[in-house]
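Budget justification aside, the reviewers requested a transparent look at the raw inputs and outputs of the sequence design task funded under Objective 1. We therefore reproduce one unedited record. The lines immediately below are the structure tokens for a 141-residue chain.
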């Protein structure tokens, strides 16, 4: 994981959800799975943190949707911003990179679920690509 400055934050469009990160963030992975495409309109760009390093400091708008038996997604019930992806039984939360306060100091490190990507765009950045899950291969990047 990439070290970040303590107290980096982010939140939704309307401010009804705000969070702080007090630890390392992984570089950004672009997920092209069908669920992320439908949720984000193209692909989901996510960093990841340990749950212990994530504090939700304003949660009046926070709602969770069980998108599959394996994960849930956090969003703002007021403005609709997609914020979090949380796998069941794991100690990490993925955070939609676009919700981080700028500058965040992160870079995109790869692409996952490229076999499900939309046909209206190309992936031509030369970063590592995985047809499905990276199975943690990019976590140390």
């Amino acid at each position: 994981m990439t070290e970040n400055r303590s107290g980096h934050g982010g939140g939704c469009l309307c401010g009804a959800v705000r969070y702080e990160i007090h630890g390392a963030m992984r570089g950004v992975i672009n997920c092209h799975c069908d669920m992320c495409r439908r949720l984000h309109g193209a692909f989901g760009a996510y960093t990841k943190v340990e749950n212990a390093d994530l504090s939700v400091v304003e949660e009046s708008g926070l709602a969770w949707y069980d998108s599959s038996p394996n994960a849930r997604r956090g969003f703002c019930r007021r403005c609709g911003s997609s914020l979090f992806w949380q796998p069941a039984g794991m100690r990490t939360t993925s955070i939609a990179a676009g919700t981080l306060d700028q500058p965040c100091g992160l870079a995109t490190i790869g692409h996952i679920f490229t076999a499900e990507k939309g046909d209206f765009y190309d992936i031509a950045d030369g970063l590592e690509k995985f047809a499905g899950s990276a199975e943690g291969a990019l976590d140390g990047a």
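The helical segments are 34-40. The chain has one helix and eleven strands. Computational costs for records of this kind are itemized in the attached budget.
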